[in-house]
């Protein structure tokens, strides 16, 4: 999608991404990614049970879930199902808030045409909705504070496109890599890693000056924990760069206690890692030395719970960098069930066709 299409989608003027957006492995058509028993069932249906019209329904069991993966699931059906023009697809939208046992997708057609795609759709909906739900919880905790996703380093690189899309749908729209933002047309952002400081002999000032020399039209956001002396190094860097220093990012390991606390009583709190008291001290030092324009970014182990605590209290953080908690927590699992055979109820005990006035019929094709 181009930026105009993205803006239209956000305004609700176009309804869905299409199969032109996603990059599917052609082996899906061969059943390479399908559970083997679905392939065997398709063969049996073709030989002995062909032509029956079934309805399949997808749902999950968690309240307050942010749905994602629907557009991708529809694109899979339109791309790899046989005779996709004959399928009746009813679906909710990516970003919809759903509850336990609410149907999100229904497909009606010949089983042998689409049934082998069931487990792929389960997986897409589970992964995308888990990430979107995790991100929703972080967004709520942020209370409007800026945030970017650092989740690229927390999983296989092949997950970045889909996870980035789910993150965007749920409200975090800044990413570390181009891959995370590819499906929505957003480029990656960032300035320096610890590696650049190491290459500069451990000098944060040298690394920041080299960065600004190489990218003169950008202000610098500098990693400031390399020497585990955040306040001292920030003040040194601000004196060197002046207004070319936009922000510092505090990324202190939970295993360390910053040297700021060397002469301070820490008996009343845990001083390890990126703690509130360190950020209060950093903000105070910046303001007292006249560097009030320098913003503070924090990262390293931030969860929705921790962010919620910090934003409630008003800890002076301008931007949160969040990674692991966005994607390494599979909170949502989807199930697909046949609930109708040739227009009559047919489902295993405990399952039924659940009525919904939220599902919308999806046209074929979606262009």
Question: What can you see in these coordinates?
Answer:
With 367 residues, this protein is an alpha/beta fold. It folds into two domains: 163 residues, nicotinate phosphoribosyltransferase (Alpha-Beta Barrel), CATH 3.20.140.10; 186 residues, TIM Barrel, CATH 3.20.20. 36% of the residues lie in helices and 16% in strands. It is built from 13 helices and 13 strands. The chain has a six-stranded antiparallel β-sheet. It has a five-stranded parallel β-sheet with strand order 6-10-9-8-7. Strand 7, helix 10 and strand 8 form a beta-alpha-beta unit. Helix 5 packs parallel to helix 12 and helix 9 runs parallel beside helix 10. The protein is elongated, with a radius of gyration of 25 Å. The N terminus is likely disordered.
Give short descriptive properties of this protein:
36% helix; 5-stranded parallel sheet; nicotinate phosphoribosyltransferase; 2 domains; disordered N terminus; 13 strands; 367 residues; single chain; 6-stranded antiparallel sheet; alpha/beta; TIM Barrel
Describe, in short, the structure shown.
The protein has helices spanning 3-10, 36-48, 70-80, 111-114, 118-142, 160-170, 178-181, 194-199, 204-214, 230-241, 276-288, 304-313, 324-327, and strands at residues 53-60, 65-66, 88-91, 97-98, 105-110, 146-149, 220-223, 245-250, 295-298, 319-322, 334-341, 344-345, 360-362. With 367 residues, the protein is of the alpha/beta class.
Q: Spans of 5+ residues with little confidence (pLDDT < 50)? A: 1-5
State Rg.
Answer: 25 Å
What portion of residues belong to β-strands? 15-25%
- Mean of residue pLDDT values: 93
